[in-house]
Amino acid sequence: LVLLFYGDLETMEGGHAEQQQARVLWKKGGMRLVPVIIANEISERIVSASVTANLIIYLTTKYHLGAASSAIIIFVYQAAANFLPFCGAIVSDALLGRYLMVTLTLFFCTIGSTLLCLTSVIPSLTPPDCALPNQNCSSPSAPQLLALCASLGFMSLGASGVRPCCLAFAEDQIAHWDTARKDRSLRSLFSWYYVSVGFSQMVAVTVLVYFQDRLGWNVGFMVSASTMALITLVNLAASPFYVKVKPQKSMWASLLQVVVVAVKNRHLTVPASNHGVQFHSIAGSSQLVPSEKMRFLNKACILRTQAGGTDNEATGNTSSWSTCTVEQVENLKSALSVMPMWSAMIVSFLVQSSSFGVLQASTMDRRFGTTRFEIPAGSISIFETITFTVWSGCYDPYVVPLLRTLTGRQRVLSLKQRMAIGVFLCIASMAVASAVEARRREAAARHGGALRMSALWLVPQYVLSGLSGAFGAIAQIEFYYAVLPKSMGSLVLALLFFGAGVANLVSTVIVKLVNVVTGNGGAAPWISDDLNRGRYDYYYLLLAVLGAIDLVYLVVCACIFDETVQNMSLEPGDAVEAEEMEKFHG
């Protein structure tokens, strides 16, 4: 199948005359295929979110692992699922193309969800049940842990192509349209994408978690595996109608080429005035002195002109690793220019990655009023998802016009300001979580461990977390799309996931360090298997402090660094604001 699709890709996109190719593009693609492509990511997100939401319960009840050990496994799985999309974006843009990458990784995700389903169906793949509740429990064997890790590993591989490529692949379907029509459709595409992500989370933490909790793990995981198998077949059926853009095999090599050439030219002296040396910019100016920040990289495309020399040599294509084009240098500059803001948003992911709210909810009263209906513990994050979906869907059509009316300004919030608001809301979420956990712990102590405190006390922290994602994560995506060149489209979401992966690894280290330090001398660690003995409120407070430090760092980065905007249509505002939007000033 892989060879068949790759051959089909080459046949469609290679060797056609320009007129023939244009005619093919007009018959293929379009907005009619966008729902299918978005459905690919919705399915992967539903399966991944349903597993993540309830995985800590599955590990503690079926595999008899402790809370800290379970959290570390979840952090590692989330880190892999967030790191691999960065690699997937590189492979997609440089080698396979977006269609083939999405198709292959859908198969991987199907395999992973099927293996996870088998762990709940085949008794030998999980330890035997405890003789008494939470007593005399057998630890999982090496083959049992291997089967579990293999399933999570394949699901992480599934995320490596689906997450970074689906949005860019959907954009490929309308890339051949005229600019005005494409811009209108692009805004619609982004709105639908944000809503679909929220919708997938809602389905995952309600329907699938309910199946897992009420009908059994085997039924819940079987539904997930069936969903992935179905959407994989639908994607294959739609294959003849896709616009399949040929991968730009030189993009990532060209970025490396700039670094190599800059290192070779590091000893060259850049004159204060242009004595026989010309510097070129992507904007078209023929003689520019490079800025101090990027002087090292600008050495990569120094052209020593002689009598009769032309400027075309500086901008022409070259395969030599002794020099490179201005476009290559500018692409690397764009990628490096987003790094400060990217690094400043990592802690926001760290704060949002905590999965202990599910354990807290499992000890609390989860009934609605006097009804008998009880929310599954894994579904408590539905409030975060609803908040994210509603706010992201209402921001552009309702919130922005309202803010413009109130302030009298066309541009009300820049992307950097929205990211800062997202970090601030993360801090508020953890502060509220700490206060609620302290109250829950006190209530449990008063009633001898029998807790009747409502799980709805956890709602405020999840609402704040949802608002944080709606401000911070969405602003990040739009920021990267605005600054990075369109040829690096798959890198946009990959950067977002890569930051989340770094946060997951940092969370793993923090959990380990907190337990080692606080459990020293035989004392109960903060993150104890027994929530009533642990001090989860202190842990949340620690995350809030880290978030406050990060907010200061973000403000400094926003004030110091300026990034050139390349894709103007992604920044909200009228054409009147076009000149003011040349730079983001935070």
UniProtKB/TrEMBL annotation:
Predominant location: membrane
Pfam families: PTR2
GO cellular component: membrane
Bilayer topology term: Multi-pass membrane protein
Molecular function as annotated in GO: transmembrane transporter activity
Transmembrane segments: 63-87, 99-125, 145-170, 191-211, 217-243, 419-436, 462-484, 491-518, 538-561
Superkingdom as given in the UniProt entry: Eukaryota
Annotated compartments: Membrane
Keyword terms, alphabetized: Membrane, Transmembrane, Transmembrane helix
Family, per entry: Belongs to the major facilitator superfamily. Proton-dependent oligopeptide transporter (POT/PTR) (TC 2.A.17) family.
Name this protein carries in UniProt: Major facilitator superfamily (MFS) profile domain-containing protein
Organism, scientific name: Eragrostis curvula
